[in-house]
Write a structure and sequence with these properties.
single chain; alpha+beta; DNA polymerase, domain 1; 5-stranded mixed sheet; 36% helix
Length: 359
């Protein structure tokens, strides 16, 4: 068995949707913009770096984004343009390797352990890819280079925008020790709060807990956290993996009980889900509602269509109908989730983890 360290690159386009809009409309350059809906139920899909200075971020309700940044300009998404740019970027990846795992339109893993350029330097390949993206699309991308997927993805976020971070095998444990646990992919907002309550703030804190302790508090996820703290991740880069569903769920600080509060949340979740559907091009025929009650009991309800749902209004209408049919709830809801299943197989793209948006 080949024991050489793998060479993994994670490429992440910088503020992708917003950067495309600023590229195509010079009047938007240097201004705080948000791609998405600016209405009371709209959701920010991506914010430019000028807007992020004010705290505007993805999945944020449009009304809150406007409060944070009164000069914020909302731009309607053009997913057909984003997909075309994404296709071009993936063609650039394919010049170096066929082992490519897209996560969404704006990010992907590449395994360049063996590569078409015959290069022994993953760092040099990452720099070439970033240069080609800039020259051919007018956009910038950040890269993480490491020996596994976990660290490569974290590294790509270290020097954004338009940066690169390289973490070599002998540096992995030290890199993870300094990492806030909330940034480790696989540690969601709820788990991060549980870790914080246990005094686990950083990778070093996580490293100090033995496997038994982690199993006691985090169950089946414990081995992943144990290995992550040590910079270990043996997941391969998948060239292609068919997506089976797309979903979004929110866990609330206070349980929701009233119809107005529940409907408002399911509308917001539907907006977030539609952004994810458009981003991936994965349209499904079955809409699934998930409710977790205050006692942690979970129910799901679904409705199937004759054709894939291709309208945000139909998605929201179906979600509301599924929810209202369960009212009044016997107790408060601590979590609402919404997903689409039975996907149309036009563009299968793997998503490594379900998106979770905290309030």
């Amino acid at each position: 068995m080949d024991s050489r360290p793998r060479k993994i690159i994670h490429i992440d386009m910088d503020a992708f949707y917003a950067s495309v809009e600023q590229r195509d409309d010079p009047s938007l350059r240097g201004k705080p913009i948000a791609v998405g809906g600016g209405g009371p139920r709209g959701v920010v899909a991506t914010a430019s770096y000028e807007a992020r200075v004010f705290g505007v971020k993805s999945a944020m309700p449009g009304a809150r984004a406007r409060r944070l940044c009164p000069d914020l300009l909302f731009v309607k998404p053009r997913f057909e343009v984003y997909r075309a740019v994404s296709t071009h970027v993936r063609e650039i990846f394919a010049r170096f390797t066929d082992v490519i795992q897209p996560l969404s339109l704006d990010e992907a893993y590449l395994d360049v352990t063996e590569n078409k350029a015959g290069s022994s330097s993953a760092t040099a390949i990452a720099q070439q890819i970033r240069r080609m993206i800039r020259d051919e699309t007018g956009l910038t991308a950040s890269a993480g280079v490491s020996y596994n997927k976990l660290i490569a993805k974290l590294a790509s976020d270290q020097n954004k925008p338009d940066g690169i971070c390289v973490v070599r095998p002998d540096e992995g444990a030290r890199f993870m020790a300094q990492m806030p646990v909330r940034r480790i992919h696989g540690v969601g907002p709820v788990t991060a709060r549980r870790m914080q309550a246990l005094g686990i703030e950083t990778g070093a804190d996580l490293l100090a807990r033995d496997l038994g302790f982690l199993q006691q508090h985090f169950g089946s996820a414990a081995p992943f956290y144990y290995r992550a703290a040590r910079g270990e991740d043996d997941r391969p880069v998948h060239e292609r993996q068919e997506r089976k569903s797309v979903s979004v769920e929110d866990t609330f600080f206070d349980d929701l009980i009233t119809q107005d509060a529940l409907v408002a949340e399911i509308d917001r979740i539907a907006q977030s889900l539609w952004t994810r559907i458009e981003k991936s091009g994965a349209y499904g025929r079955t809409v699934v509602l998930k409710i977790k009650f205050a006692d942690f009991r979970i129910i799901t309800r679904s409705r199937s269509m004759n054709a894939p749902v291709r309208s945000p209004d139909l998605l929201a209408e179906t979600a509301r109908a599924l929810l209202i049919a369960q009212l009044p709830l016997r107790m408060g809801a601590r979590l609402l989730g919404l997903g689409v299943h039975n996907l149309d197989a036009e563009e299968p793209v793997e998503q490594s983890q379900q998106l979770s948006f905290p309030l």
